[in-house]
Amino acid sequence: MIQKISSPVVLALVFLAAFSIAPPGGAQADDDDDALEHEEARRALEQGLVRPLEEIVAEARKHVQGDLIEVELERENERYIYELEFIQPSGQIVELQLDAKSMAIIEDDAD
Question: Could you write out the DSSP letters of every residue in 19-53?
Fold first, then answer.
């Protein structure tokens, strides 16, 4: 006789077990990409091509109020750019782009 699983705890455990055994196909590739990006960022910091994130955030906070919700380090040609997104108390999202070496503001977009 087959019994129906009805306990929320048992269902949650079955769900977690299923996904921990068989991760999505792209999970390993995403992890590899992240590792390469982190390594590139670390090398750029060591070579003086970018400033530490703490300094970038402190500079950005001089121009934008609110909570920091996203940070990206992009490479455009031979230049690194930090893209920071803030959510202001009003709910407005503001993206600020700073040169990763000079900390100069490149773009200030209020969405």
Answer: HHHS--TTHHHHHHHHHHHHHHHHHHHHTTSS--H
Residue 101 in 3-state DSSP? Answer: coil
pLDDT 10s digits, 32-62: 777 888 899 999 999 999 999 999 999 999 9
Q: What does 79-98 look like in DSSP terms, one character per residue?
A: EEEEEEEEE-TTS-EEEEEE
33-42: long-range pairs with CB below 8 Å, 24+: 37/73, 40/75, 41/73
Question: Cα–Cα distance between 53 and 42 in angstroms, integer?
Answer: 11
Instruction: For 57, list phi and psi in degrees, rounded to 5.
Output: -65, -40
